[in-house]
Amino acid sequence: MTNGLMFVCGAGGSIFVGVLTLYYELQENSYILPQRYKRPWYYVMRLFMAGLSGGLAMAFQATTPLGAVHIGIAAPLIVETLQRTIPHIPRM
Question: Which of 9, 14, 19, 55 could pair covalently with 68 via S-S, beta carbons 3.0-4.6 A apart?
């Protein structure tokens, strides 16, 4: 599998989670768009997370497109786990 395909599948997994979340939030709120979706900063962060998800799929060297999608879906949990395991270095 090429790096480009790994990246696209990983980013696609992240975008899939965003679209699914939007769908469920619209159903819960009588199809009224929640306020966070009206802010440009939300879309900047979603694009950043999609890029990060694609990068993680490449870093973990996913061997199949489905594996890369799974990494994209799990990217927020992977980042959170990495953040917790990196030791805290006190500022001087």
Answer: 9
- Tokens of residue 39, six digits: 């802010």
CB neighbours (10 Å) of residue 24?
A: 10
Positive or negative, the Cα torsion across 6, 7, 12, 18?
positive
pLDDT per residue as tens digits for the range 18-48: 999 999 999 999 999 999 999 999 999 999 9
3-state DSSP call for residue 11?
helix
Q: Residue 49 contacts by C-beta under 8 Å, 6 or more apart in sequence?
A: 14, 18, 75, 76
Nearest Cα to 13, choosing from 27, 89, 60, 91?
60
